[in-house]
Amino acid sequence: MEAIAAEEYSFDVEAFEAKPFEWGGYAEIKFEHIDLNSESAFYGLIFYNDPRSTIDRVTGSLQLDVGYRKGIAAFNGLLHVEAMQDNLGWSDTVDIYEANLSLKLQPFVTADLGKKTFKWGTGYAWNPVGFIDRPKDPNNPEEALEGYIAAGVDLIKSFNQPLQTIALTTVAIPVYEHVNEDFGESGHMNIAAKLYMLYRDTDIDLVLFTGNSRSLRYGVDFSRNLTSNFEIHGEYAYLPDLQKNHLAPSGKLESRELSVSRYLFGLRYLTENDITTIIEYYHNGAGFSSEELTAFYQLVEDADSHFNDTGSDNLIQNAKTVSSNGYSSPNLSRNYLYCKINQKDPFDILYLTPGLITIFNLDDQSYSISPDIQYTGFTNWELRLRYTFLNGGTFTEFAEKLNKNKLELRLRYHF
User: Is the pLDDT of residue 13 over 90?
Assistant: First the structure.
């Protein structure tokens, strides 16, 4: 009996040990059918001399994640390769999202050097305090983002008291020719710091960014589980001297300095039958007012009319310049409400997850709605079908976007 019991409860210790080299990732193919909105401002900017009603696109991508650990050193790399073919032509990119060397110098001291995504902030769709991260796509916020080349140090200390953990992260981000050129103004070294505290089961971050590539920024965020299935979170950022471009009455761009706030409050709730709901309110003090956006859309409409009357695109080129200086940014307005709902295995249909994402512009009442359905019933395979519909009144954000709807089918193999 003892021999049988020993055999029954034995396990391989080596199977649970961390391997020095690990790798994974996915290969994906995505099909998209896009119905263009021929009445929108951005259609007029892009297709003013090449009218079309639809775009069909095929995109293939490969993402490879590697990690190697030995002693106090760890290397993490993330490579993203993408090729796209549509009615407009072919494009391809090869991007190193991360390539970072980490050294655990002491149990409480870690140093990092290389390209890294920091993922600061507690928000799901937006991160006002993500001062050194690229902005997320609210329709796909869980997708990996390209990082920046930086050097950083983490110090961490734990306590047996209400303040359970405290950690300080300090990051230096250079911006020079061929180094983080899209981060901001070149020729500067920038510093960001985050003080993390776990106090009475509440996660709190105090965040600071200073440097001449971007404006000075202060931030704070928090996250707390009120119950095992109910979490709340929030972020607040203050930018005291932000330079913002705006459209002057002359039709030209002007720059002005503003003190603005960005903040977010959200919740995540999981029901007993596996329905997950995420709701977030986001305020972007640096966004454009409805009046400012109306002026831009009117500028584009006038430029398009001028082209149709004269054949000259000089006003359209001016409108394109204005667009590329902030007016084509995603979520360029001031107040948004985000809601994502999905349910695992509805009606006991295993591996099926239907969902819905809605982004509502509270300033002009335009919106996008994206129902989708995901199936993972085959080992390592993921199939997702999504339809996105945009709507709103004249001269509103979602009504003036390039497409009025999009159908997307994605097949992804994880390895």
Answer: no
Q: Name the H helices within 119-162.
A: none
206 by Cβ neighbours in 10 Å (0-12 / 13-18 / 19+) ranks as middle
Give domain status of residue 3, yes or no: no
Read off the pTM.
0.92
| Cβ contact 32:59 at 8 Å | yes
Pick from 128, 174, 169: nearest CA to 148: 174
C-alpha distances in Å from residue 355, one per residue of 279, 323, 342: 14, 33, 4
Q: pLDDT tens digit string along 84-136?
A: 999 999 999 999 999 999 999 999 999 999 999 999 999 999 999 999 999 99
The angle subtended at Cα 35 by Cα 29 and Cα 38, nearest 5°, is 145
DSSP class of residue 19?
P
Domain count, the chain: 1
Tell me which residue range forms the domain holding 390: 30-414
Question: What are residue 308's phi and psi, to 5 degrees?
Answer: -65, -30
Q: What is the CATH number of the domain that holds 356?
A: 2.40.160
Per-residue pLDDT at 249: 83
Which of 8-12, 234-238, 319-323 reaches the highest mean pLDDT?
234-238
53 contacts 85 by C-beta, under 8 angstroms: no
Per-residue tokens: 319: 């409108």
| DSSP string over 266-291 | EEEEE-TTSEEEEEEEEEETTSPPHH
